[in-house]
Amino acid sequence: MGEKLEQYLRHLPKVEPGRSFAPSVMACIAERARPSYRRYKRWVVAFAAVALFVLMLTTNLPLTPRLELFGYRTVRLVFCSTVRNPKTVAVAGDFSDWESIPMERVDENCFALTLRLRPGKYEYGFLVDGKWVPDPLSLRAVADGFGSVNSVLVVDGDTE
Amino acid sequence: MWEQSDREIIQEVLNGNKDLFAVLVARYEKPIFNYVYGLVRQRQDAEDLTQEAFVKAFFALRTYRDSFEFSTWMYRIARNVCLDYFRRQKIRSFFSLNTPVGEEEDELGDFLPEGKDPEEGVLKEELLERVSQAVGQLPLKFREVIVLRYVEELSYEEIARILDVPVGTVKTYLHRAKAKLRELLGEEFS
C-alpha cells in the first residue's frame, strides 16, 4: 500500500513559471545593479543628518528650533551706557528677586544679558558701576518707592 | 549541440558576460519554481520568491563554490528565501507550520502536466487531488522532503545537501511524512 501512496506522490502536479519569467528575472537584476538614489538612500540620509548636526554646532544659522519649554521665553536685555566705558553693569529685577546679575560687555559702552523668563510683567533696572539706572530703551516705567523708577519688562520678548 | 556547463557559464558571468545568467535561469527555473510552489502553495508568491532567489544568486555568484552543484546551491538559496517569506508571514515556528488548504489548492488541476492525466492512467484524479491537499497540510519540513523527493525526483544525498542534514535524517523525515500522509488520507492509503 505504501507503493500506492508513492505512486500518487510521484504524479503530484508540476507547475511552471510564466513564459516571461527569465526576462523578468534579468530585468530585476539590471534594475538592482543600477546605482540609484534608493540604493544609497540610507547613506544620503545619514550624511544629511551629520551635515545638519555640524552646521547646528558650528554656525549661527537659524537651524535650531526655538523650543519654549514649559512656557519659558528667551529675552535679551541690552544696555548701552551714556557714561563712557563703565566698569560694571548688572541687571536686577523681580525676576531675580532683586539680586544683581552681571551683564556681559559686548563693546566699549554696551552690555547684554540673555534671560529665560515665563511670560508676564517684570520690574527691573540696571546697576551701572553700582548706580541704579532705568532701562533707557524701555517705554514703560513705574515708581520704585525709593524716589527712583523701575523699568517694566513685558515678557513676550519685548520690553515696554 | 555543445552545451556549456553551469560552471563555465558562471565563470563567464563573473567575467562580465552578465546576460549569460539568463541561461542558468532558463535551465533551473522549473525545478526551483516547483520546489518553491511546493512550499508556499500560492502561485504568485511562488513566482515572486523564485525570482528573488535567482536575483540573490546572481549577486552572490562570487560566493558560489564548486563543492556544490549549482542546482543544489540554488535550492538552498530558494529555501532561505522561502524561510524569510514565512518569517515575514509571522509564522514563528518553522517546524510546526501548517498551511491551511485554501483556494490555491483548487488551482492545482490547472497545472496537471500533459501525459499525466489520471483519467488516462491508473491514478484517480480525485485521489490525486486528495493527496495533493494532504501534502499541503504537512508540516513544512515534511512537505519539503516530499516535494524534493517525489516532485523534484532528487536523491537522498541531494536532499541532504540542500537541507544541510544527514541522509539518515532525510529518510526519517520521509518516513514520518508518509506516515502522516497515510493518517490524513485514511483507509484508502493505509
UniProtKB/TrEMBL annotation, chain B:
It comes from the Bacteria. One of its GO terms (biological process) is DNA-templated transcription initiation. It holds the Pfam family Sigma70_r2. InterPro entries: RNA_pol_sigma-70-like, RNA_pol_sigma-70_dom, RNA_pol_sigma70_r2, RNA_pol_sigma70_r4_t2, RNA_pol_sigma_r2, RNA_pol_sigma_r3/r4-like, WH-like_DNA-bd_sf. Residues 24-90 form the RNA polymerase sigma-70 region domain. Coiled coil: none annotated. One of its GO terms (molecular function) is sigma factor activity. Keywords: Sigma factor, Transcription, Transcription regulation. Residues 129-181 form the RNA polymerase sigma factor 70 region 4 type domain. Belongs to the sigma-70 factor family. ECF subfamily. This is RNA polymerase sigma factor. The lineage of its organism: Bacteria, Pseudomonadati, Atribacterota, Atribacteria, Atribacterales.
